[in-house]
Amino acid sequence: MSYSNKYIFAALPRTQRGTPLVLGGDPKGRNFLYTNGNSVIIRDIENPAIADVYTEHSCQVNVAKYSPSGFYIASGDASGKVRIWDTVNKEHILKNEFQPIGGPIKDIAWSADNQRMVVVGEGRERFGHVFMSETGTSVGEISGQSKPINSVDFKPTRPFRIVTASEDNTVAVFEGPPFKFKCTKQEHTRFAQAIRYSPDGSLFASAGFDGKIYLYDGTSSELKGEIGSPAHKGGVYSISWSPDGKRLLSCSGDKTCAIWDVETRERVTLFNMGSNVEDQQVSCLWQGKHLLSVSLSGVINYLDENNPDKPSQIVMGHNKPITCLTLHPDRKTLYTASHDGCVTTWNTETGESQHVGGRGHGNQVNGMRAGAGGALLTCGIDDTLRKAVSPSDGAAPVYTEQAVALGSQPRAMDHIIDDDTTIVATIKELCVVIGGAKQSSLPVNYEPTCVTIDPKSRQVAVGGADNKVHIYSLDVRTLTPGVELTHLGAVTDAKFSPDGTYLVACDANRKVILYTTEEYKLAHNKEWGYHTARVNCVAWSPDGSRVASGSLDTAIIVWSVASPAKHIIIKNAHPQSQITGLTWLDDETIASVGQDANTRIWNVPKQE
User: Fold this and answer.
1) Into how many domains does the chain fold?
2) Which of 199, 261, 252 is nearest to 227 (CA)?
3) Where are this protein's WD repeats (predicted)?
4) Per-position DSSP letters for 238-271, written without gaps between them
């Protein structure tokens, strides 16, 4: 009954235009942290394909930071809760939970002795709070600023100080403990967005939406001067000090990142990140020899000082819910698509990812199938069927300019590789597309939800919101209706077995039902009904001996065709997130995708 999660292809940071993102660095230099939805994602900085996900928050998490010892992580969410949990155990045991403010938390800082913590954000009664990390006891108050606070930092050396940057354009300084307001600095003319102490605490820098970066004395807080004049043409979203404190990394909405020499306050290196809106840089982190920045599109760039025009590595993926996935015929490449129209290809052995290039749908992808020669076919709610073709150098496929107009919104599709035939189910009709041209269409009086083709018998099964599976036979380009199979809920997915002897269908009534294709009768009298909510997707193992189903209840269940009473339940396969797609890489390996934007690979050995 054993199964294991082999690896996670993690979601990218959830970004929002005009909002800075906070990256957390590991004091031991191994990992970095960011958030997406209610997940905190921990990634290995040397090999970002290695990731871990923490999902115990009940609402959106905004920030996560390592304690200076590296043994704990504190994460703060949109309700004002802070959870402190350990990094050593795989289960990430909760140490403490506090509610320091009554609203979204935007930044967190620890004192160097791991004992005190300060959180800031958008509380109803206050914009920040300082407390003991063990007991939650207050050690001062954060006051003196009139609008939400965006950023905070703790001086890493004694005497302790706290500095905050606020939307009232000011920087505030607090002395303690217990911490009391000392003064505000009013150099910025727009929102102050980021504030950070140098590693030795001798200086701190602040950055704002006025494009300026200012440098202050770490102890007396007096202004030392401005870095650059101004530093950037657009708002500065984030700053990060080099480990030796001699240089500063900044990133901006003007689509650049820059390295500054602190002593001369001059720019040393400029990184041009692109020219599109999604190339705005919303966060940066300098950790050891790695310089990271995050684009508005969510991709993580590893900056290369020796070649500022091209990042040494770009980590791609999704930061919005994944709507569908499909497998390349080589069974090593996985394609996933999210509801913003982003399509990603994954190497399932290394975890490396690339975005499919060219002009795609620009909005939600509802169906996706691999075609001949590494091509990829997708249909989206721009009412088109599009094709992406792989270049010869092994790079990710690129969309061609051709698009087949479908006439109404597509719900699902399937494809026969051998004769390049695609059937697209739209809300009004079933379209037969051969060789990139629409050949015929059959109007339907129900709303299709899924479509599957058996290439051998050329039978087509279409699931409907009318609680039925409609069977058709395909003769070149003509569809002829046949039997109808009735379910107790809307049919959500259906798949023919690899050898065409079975059809499995799942529905909104929590059931997975297996039919023989000879007469479309029930294959056995055992009901597969262990899901506790709508079943979203089903998939056959390549040898046709097992079926996997994924549901709104966050579980994956693996069913055996030969012994219908046997099944393996993977509970919380995607914690707090419904499962939106499944496929088998081989007879013992399943890939699953969910609304949490993560792709997980599972090892499910066969039972004796």
Assistant:
1) 2
2) 261
3) 54-95, 185-217, 229-270, 315-356, 528-563
4) EEEE-TTSSEEEEEETTSEEEEEETTTTEEEEEE
Residue 6 near residue 599 (C-beta atoms within 8 A): no
Of 315, 335, 350, which residue sits at a domain end?
315
pLDDT in tens, 217-256: 999 999 999 998 899 999 999 999 999 999 999 999 999 9
Which residues lie below 8 Å from residue 562, measured CB to CB, with a gap of 6+?
545
3-state DSSP assignment of residue 371 = coil
Q: Which of residues 315, 345, 362 is at a domain's end?
A: 315
Q: Which of 305, 195, 199 is nearest to 243 (CA)?
A: 199
Judge whether 397 lies within some domain. Answer: no
DSSP, res 204? E
Strand, helix or coil for residue 19: strand
Q: Please determine, for residue 1, whether its predicted confidence score (pLDDT) is greater than 60.
A: no
**Alpha-carbon distance 97 to 76, whole Å?**
10
For residues 564 and 562, give the distance between their C-alpha atoms in angstroms, rounded to a whole number. 6
pLDDT tens digits along 245-280: 999 999 999 999 999 999 999 999 999 999 999 999
- Asked if residue 334 belongs to a domain, the reply is no
Helices H / strands E in the chain, number of each: 0, 55
Strands (E), 39-111: 39-44, 51-54, 61-66, 72-77, 82-86, 94-98, 105-110
Token look-up 């792989």 returns 390
Give 16's DSSP letter: B
CB 116 within 8 A of CB 86: no
- Mapping DSSP to helix (H, G, I), strand (E, B) and coil, where does residue 541 land? coil
Tokens 């707090």 label which residue?
576
Residue with token string 């025009």: 309
For residue 228, how many other CB atoms are within 10 A of its CB?
16
- φ, ψ at 199 (rounded to 5°): -55, -30
